[in-house]
Amino acid sequence: MADHTPPLESGQLLSPELPILASPPPPAMVNGEGPQQVILVQVNPGEAFTIRREDGQFQCITGPAQVPMMSPNGSVPPIYVPPGYISQIIEENGVRRVLVLPQQPEFHPGGHSPLHHPPPPPHAHLPAFIPHPAMMPPPHHLYTGMAGGVGDMSSQYISQYHPAHIYPEQVSTDSHSQHGRPSLVHRDDRTSKTHERLQKKLKERQGGGQVKDSPPSSPQKSCNSPPTVDIHNGIGGKGLEAEQGQLRHTVSSPDKQTGKRKIGESAVLDKEAQALQALLSTINKPEVSDIEARGATVSWSAPTKPESENDSKEDDPSFSEPLCYDVSISISGKDGKYQSMHCGEELSATLELLRPATDYHVRVQAMCSGLQGNPSEAVSFTTLSCEPDPPNPPKKISGTKNSLLLQWKAPCDNGSKIQNYILQWDEGKGTGVYEQCYYGPQKQYKVAKLSPASRYSFRLAAKNDMGTSEFSEVVDLFTSCSVPLPPFPPELEMAGVTWLCLKWQRPASSPKEDDIFYILEMEEEGSVCLLREKRINFLIGVYYLFISAFLHLLQVAAYNSEGKSNPSQVVELITKPDIPGCPFKPVIRGRVLPNSFKMAWEPPKDDGGSEITKYVVELSEGTSGSPWGQVYSGPALEHVCEGLKPGCSYQTRVYCMSEGGQSPLSETLQVQTPAVPPGQCQPPRLVGKPKAREVQLRWGVPQVDGGSPVSCYSIEMSGPQSEESKEVYQGPELDCSVGGLMPGKTYSFRLKAANKAGFGPLSERFEVTTGPGAPEQCKAPSTTCKSSSCVVVSWEAPPCNGAPVTEFRLEWGAAEGSMQICYSGPGLSHEMKGLLPATNYFCRVQAVNVAGVGPFSEAVFCLTPCTVPAAVSNIYVLKESELRSYDTPVDPVYSPSTCLGICWDPPCDHGSEINSYLIDIGERQPIVVGPVTKHVIQNLQPDTSYRIRIQALNSLGAGPFSHTFKLKTKPLPPQPPRLECTAFSHQTLRLKWGDGPAKATSDALQYQLHMGDKNGRFISLYKGPCHTHKVQRLNESTSYTFRIQAFNEAGEGPFSNVYTFTTPRSPPAPLKAPKVERLDDNSCEVTWEALPPMKGDPVIYSLQCMIGNSDFKQAYKGSATTFHVQNLQPNSDYRFRVCAIRQCQDAPELSGPYSPTVTLSSQRNDAALASSAVSSGSRIGTESTRARQSLSDEQCAFLILMVFAVIAILIAFVIQYFVIK
């Protein structure tokens, strides 16, 4: 669309914002709506511009063309920029243009592309006025069948690139040389397939393809399409810079550029790839032969390994795939930008479509398996000169009836200066046969002795030393004719308030080929005023006026190059009247009523040049966009709005009508009508069935709310025997429940509603009859005991309350709060059986009818007579602990092997206290005991089973026996074992008993070990099946007492005799390593820590010394904590250690463990620095020893564990790096 924008696909529909928009500065006034601008939309060749016409249809205009558009507010409409393009606004000769350019202009190799025809410049006499698009004739070409794509369109709509002249004086030398020529890149099928295969391998190697979201490449960026550069001759200015950038752009495959970038940005290659890339970089510079004006042949040799490396077989790269060569050229020097021209497996290539007489640099680059070597050294060559390019057609500068003055511009000379031009014409015959009318070096020529108003065809060619160019396109030019006759008077086509649309006829005597201009004149107040001069290419002219309803006198005259005609006759034309102004805002007259109000208004100040015919009043209910309705139309200045709703908001407005049309709407008047009480409600209705003492009522909102929301409702009720009404409900709800009514009675209800204006009228009466009620409460029933387990209950029927009693319900229970229904039926009595003797019972009764269940009577208490006791339910065996707490005297030699302690749950005495129990033990004599629940049966056989049952007796007799329970005596308990001490220390004692193993093998026999405390009491230490136990946390030199007991399932055996064991004394604690300080060369001082006395026993110390590798010898023994060692031998190492010794009063001494060893090394030169860091620093220049402590077992184990962990980590790393990867 811009001078250098790549052509879009021919099947693409463009939006109106897409082409170039050029806006001339002078604004215009249209219909008095403000400043407007005419926008020139330039459509380039091969492109399309789509607009929407007034009828709603879309019209597609093909280029080259300039479409005038009208901007309503004087601003350039927004520009839609396609993906991959940017917009650039430039100003050229007062005209703003918006250029849509690619984001990154790419250089095109060797020459300029086929050129587009520039649009014809506006005529010198073309006025600034441009008709509205609705008044324009349709364009010459329209797109049809766009849905089908490119294949559905005719061939003339597909983008074509026609060659055109290039004028060197208008194109900078930086854009192309003076010998420039179009250059197109063509590739054969084999080259294209090789390129596609290389790109596919490169994508597979780098793991990526084309980005899905990237915009599609334009036709210029395709490898199989010729590169194009649009150069419009005759259009200079700031657009030239874009032309130069377009000439320098590079046409290459996007995939290839992506592959190169990815290879350049990839990580370090492996050794094999590096060797292959180095081999590809050894390619020699190419050779150029067969140089012609527009082509040359380039050949090269395949890359080879240097001879010095031929003998080495290590890392010898081999080509797994055929080599591919990329030939690129540059026209901007050896270090300039290169463009790919050939890609294939051959060792030679023919470069075509080059510029004549142009300096080129060519280089070759080898590729294999997705890798690229460095380009070879560039070789320069210069193409030969040739004949000039075809020039542009000649242009008409001026002309008369008998002559034409032609002018043209020089084309590209292609390296050889143009010497002559050949101008041919058809002599006005129109036969297509051309004769030469001029031959020479000039760039203009005047053709004379021509016929008036005739057409002549011309064509032009250029010639230099290399030959003659092709002829330009044929151009048709016309000669002028005589002075035109006066035109017919202008006719009124259309009239407006501030404008008139006129048309006039072309003079009949003037031929169509003659260029005729027109002058439109207007007489106003006796003077002739020249308003506008315009060249008319069509039969419609428009003139705009600015006074409404005014008489104008107009005439028109025609002229051409020969002179001006007489004016036409004067015509009288009148513009239409304008619309009137809006009336003043309406006002309220009087008081606003609930259903009406009176409004008035004033006429507008401006009537638009015609009388007001009527006023129209519109009314809208509410303030939120309700539709407006017309309520009055007439000449009056006031109106009464009736039929309104109370309590509603209304809006009203006025406009007037005249011959000029409808005025704007006046300001809106807001009116609020007052509210009234609500209207009469509908009677309330019954919800569900009426109950005996309650009814549920519901109602709806009144149909008329009086203009205010209903806030409250009131229900009034009148009784069955009284006409007096009383209010039973008042509130905002739409239902209520009325209680406290009598069963089977008729009541009447009335409803009224209220809002902020008050209560409305009562509704009509609504009568409701209540249903029957449940029976009344029964009297307390009476009870009669027939036996200790049978009672007769009787009752009386209560008042039925409007419905006969159908049944009675009797509840019976032992507690007043837990009674259950035991009878339901019409009878008035019931016999209760299966009761417990001497038991309290409660009963109550209620009556039931069809209306419901009556309330229960009062509860009645009943006590059944006494009887013999019940049977004993359970018998238990007493434990020994429970037996000891029993109060009855028990044989002190009680043993569970010969006795059975039993207990039982006392049964129910049935109202008479139990005085004794009878215990039956099978074949033995029964045992009678008192009123107790425990008893010990003695003199039984060990490990023997007995069948026992018990019977309770009271004053009324003996109760039944209980169930028989089988009980068994236990076997005899075991004897205690012998206890002995097997190991001891100052804090622990290890005890052992019995002959079994240390750990128990069964749970049949277990032991309990007791230890005596200071108070003589024994505390249990251990209980279990083991035969050993270790007693810890004891004091030294202390005596402890122990006893042991054995037990099994037969019971616990007797305790053993008391055993006494004593703990020995404890040795002193180990000391820390002593500190050694050298006093001089022959003496040193050894110090160690002091220990407190141990339970009154003093502590002394023993210091041992070892010289070299000899044995330790005692150097000191005493109570001091320091010792001076004298007579040290030079160049000898001394080792010291110390231990504490406890001096017992009545026992031998106890020595503790020795401390860690400390070493005193011999004095050396390098020992001074180390000794100064260890010593206290109080003495300078003296030598001190370094304490070397031996590692403990825990430290050695930790050190070994750390070494194994480090080795395991290293092995895992090696496996991960060398084996897995």
Automatic annotation (TrEMBL):
Residues crossing the lipid bilayer are 1197-1220
Q: Which UniProt keywords apply?
A: Membrane, Transmembrane, Transmembrane helix
Region spans: Disordered? 1-33, 171-238, 294-320
Question: Which SUPFAM superfamilies would you find in this protein's record?
Answer: Fibronectin type III (SSF49265)
**What InterPro entries does UniProt report for this protein, alphabetically?**
E3_ligase_FN3/SPRY, FN3_dom, FN3_sf, Ig-like_fold
User: Where are stretches of biased composition, namely Basic and acidic residues?
Assistant: 185-206
Which residue intervals define the domain Fibronectin type-III in the entry?
Answer: 282-386, 390-483, 486-578, 582-676, 677-773, 774-870, 888-972, 973-1066, 1067-1165
The record's annotation in Gene3D superfamilies points to: Immunoglobulins
Q: What's this protein's name?
A: Fibronectin type-III domain-containing protein
Please give the organism: Astatotilapia calliptera (Eastern happy)
Query: Per UniProt, what is the name of the gene that codes for the protein in this document?
Result: FNDC3A
